Amino acid sequence: MKTFKSILILTVVLVATAFTVKTSSGYEVGDVAGNFTLKNIDGNMVSLSDYNNEKGVIVVFTCNHCPYSKMYEDRIIALDKKYKEKGYPVVAINPNDPSASPGDDFESMKERAKSKGFTFPYLFDDGQKVYPKFGATRTPHVFVLKKAANNKFVVSYIGAIDNNARDAASANELYVEEAVNSLLEGKQPEKTLTKTIGCSIKVAS
Fold first, then answer.
1. What is the pLDDT of residues 171-187, one digit of tens each?
2. Strands 32-33 and 153-159
3. Rg of the Cα trace of the chain?
């Protein structure tokens, strides 16, 4: 009888665990993003604090190998070109460990940025210290930061770039654009959190 009860309790625990959605330990909308400093493909170090004179920053966790990241590259470039002059430049960060994700090493990042004509910094999260703080889980994963008082960057949107990864022309909900446009108008975005679709971030075993 005791054995049966033990098995029953264990079964209940396993089922509950299987159907429990693990919440991110990273930033939530409204949180202040901490400063970071990472190496750019040009060899220079780039910090979030370097953007204190901007209205905000569009932080995109992306990479070289992921098919979803590749599908969104042109759209990320377009976001930078559209909003950089308005005070919301793009900063891209590769969160993958290259030992677990061949093709996501620093040299490959430089080659990819050159071939695609990236107009924004492409930073390497060496040691994978930054992406967990944000709570990024996939590539691409976007965090729109609005600069507030005392040069603090407040997380104002988290999620996907739009609602159609495979076909940019068919996307009818441009989440990041809508969020940034609202912030530029002095309003809070209507949608502050959307589901990301992409490749999981690769961590060395």
1. 999 999 999 999 999 99
2. antiparallel
3. 19
In a domain, 17, yes or no: no
Secondary structure (DSSP) of 50-105: GGTTSSEEEEEE--SS-HHHHHHHHHHHHHHHHHTTTT--EEEEE---TTTSTT-S
15 within some domain: no
In a domain, 20, yes or no: no
β 122-124/90-94 pair status: parallel
Residue 12 in tokens? 């209940």
Pairing of strands 37-40, 122-124: antiparallel
Instruction: Please enumerate in sequence order all residues whose Cβ is within 8 A of that of 39, keeping only pairs 6 or more positions apart, or say none.
Output: 45, 46, 106, 123, 124, 126
Range of the domain at 50: 25-200
Distance of alpha carbon 196 from alpha carbon 173, whole angstroms: 13
173, part of any domain: yes
Taking phi over 0 as left and psi of -120 to 50 as alpha, with beta for the rest, 155 belongs to beta
| Interval 8-47: pLDDT, tens | 333 333 333 232 233 358 999 999 999 999 999 999 999 9
Total structural domains in the chain? 1
**The domain spanning residue 90 has which CATH number?**
3.40.30.10
